[in-house]
What does this fold into?
Amino acid sequence: MTNVAQTRGDSTGSEATEFDALVVGAGFSGLYQLHALRDRLGLTVQVLEAADGVGGTWYWNRYPGARCDSESHSYCFSFSEELINDWEWSERYPAQPEVMRYLNFVADRLDLKRDIRFHTKVVAAEYDEARNRWLVTTEAGAHLSATYLITAVGCLSAANIPDFPGLDRFEGDWHHTGLWPHEGVDFAGKRVIQIGTGSTGIQAAPVIAETAEHLTVLQRTPNYSVPAQNAPLTDEFRRHVKATYPEIRRVMRSTPNGHAFTIADRSAFDVTPEEREAIYEAAWAKGGLQFRASFRDVLVNKEANDTAAEFVKKKIREIVKDPATAEQLANIDHPYAGKRPPIDTNYFETFNRDNVTLVDVRTDPIEEITATGVRLRSGAEHVADIIVFATGFDAMTGTLLKMGIRGRDGLTLEQAWEAGPRNYLGLQVPGFPNLFTVTGPGSPSVLCNMPVPIEQHVEWIADCIAHLRQHGIDRIEPEAAAADDWVEQVNRAARATLLSEVEHSWYLGANVPGKPRVFMPYAGGMARYRAICDEVAANGYSGFALR
Ligand code: NAP
It folds into this structure.
C-alpha cells in the first residue's frame, strides 16, 4: 500500500496547496474516497470539510430522535473485514451518536483525519483548462488545486427553510433539524411547534413530546409510517452477522435498494386477502423498511400499493384514539412509499398524549411567523417558545449548486443544470472534466441503503482514475449524447414505478419553490445500476470522452 502523503511526511497537508485529488465532504463518501485514492492508488489527496469533525449528514442532523432507518449491520462499510470485525453495533437501528462514533472509528483506524482540512467550506471550484486543474477557493480565502475534484457532499445537506414572512420577528428560538445545535435543545416547560412530518419530523415528534410542555405538529402532507421495532442487538445476532457477513454483503449487492433483505417474489394478488393481511401483520410486527418488500409489486402496481396503503391507514385509525386526529393522519393522498417511507418509534401513539396537538396546514397554510408563534391563513394562531423546522432539504442538487462550480469556458453548474440535473450515470457532467459527483443526481443513492451506492461510486471513481493514470489520459468528461441518454433512462426508470406519480416529493424537487421538476434519483435499482457502470468501464469508458 503506497501513501504518497505519508512518505512525504505531511501531517495534515494544511500547508500544501497542490494535490492529485481534492474531495469535498468528510461523511461516508469522503472518508472512503480519501482511503481509496490515497491508500490504494497512492495519490496526494486532501478532503475539505466545512464542519469541525467527520460525519457528514450525521454531523449536522443531531435532532431529537435522529436515528438511521437502515439496520445497523447493513449501514456500514463492507470493503474491509477488519472494520466489520472490530466494530460492534448496539441497536438494530443506530442512533445519531453511534453512527458518529462509527465514522470516527473508521477515520481513526484508517488514519484519515491527517488529510482532512476541517472548518473549510468550498465557495468556488473552477476548472482551468490550460493547466487541466481544478482551482478551489475556500471561505477563508485559501486556494488549492488538483487534477481531480470529487464532491462527496451528500444528497441531503442543504437545509430547506421555507421563506415564511416574519421569521426574523420571532422572539423564541428556532432550529432546522439539519443544523441542530451541538449542545442540544432543552424543551422542558416549553411550547414547541414542529413544522414537517417527513422521516425527520416523524422521528423527532415523539422525543420532543416527552419533555415539552406542549407540542403542536403542523402537518401539510400526512405520511405513512411503519414501526421500526428498534431494539438492542443480542450477542447471538451480532455473532450471526459476523459469521455470515459475505452472504449479507451478497444480498445487499443483489437487491434493488442495497438493504440486507430481499423483496418477496410474489404479487400482492398471488395470495388471498386473508393471507395478505397476515403477511402485512407479520411485516408490521417485524418492523422497518422490509414492510415495503412484502410483495414485489407494491412500488409498481397501484392496486397492489393500495393494499399496503390501506393496511397502514387501518393501523393509524387503530392506534390514534381521537377519531378526528386519526382521520387527519390517515388522510394520505399518495401511494405508500411513493415518497421516502419513514419508520418510527411511537409516532402515531404520540398523538394520544395530552400535550400534543395536530394541526392541518394543507387546508389552512402557514401565513406568517409572528413574534409569538405561527399564524395560519384563517387567522388561527399557535404560540410557541421554540419552532422546529423539520422541513427537509434542497435535495441532491442544492449543495452542489451552492459550491460555485465552473467548468470549461466558465460554464457554471447552475447554467448547465438550469432545466434540472443533466449528467452521465450520476457521476460526471458534460463540460466539467475530471469532476466526479459521489451519489449525485441520476444515481440510485437516496433510494438505497446509502453505504452500498457510496461504496460502488467511490470504487468506480477510484478505478476510473487508476485507468486514466495507467493509460496516460489527462481528462475524462461525458459526451453530451451519453448524458442526454442517461437523463432519459432516469426518467424512464422513474416512470416504471409509482414514485413519479407523487407530484409533491423532494425526489422531484417539488419541495423547493422554483426548482426544476425533474425526478432526480435513478429508480432502476442498485444492482442494475452497478451492472451498467461496470459495463461502461469494461467497454473502455463508453459514453465518456477520454483525452
Ligand atoms: P422531507 O421528507 O422533505 O419532509 C419535510 C416536511 O416538511 C414535509 O412534511 C413537508 O410537507 C414539510 N414542509 C416543507 N415545507 C413546508 C411548508 N412551507 N409548510 C408546511 N410544511 C412544509 O424532509 P425530512 O423529513 O428531513 O427527510 C428528508 C430525507 O432525509 C428523508 O426522505 C430521508 O431520505 C432522509 N432521512 C433519513 C433518516 C434516516 O435514515 N434515519 C431520517 C430522516 C431523514 P410536504 O410533504 O407537504 O412537502
Remarks:
- The first helix runs from residue 4 to 8.
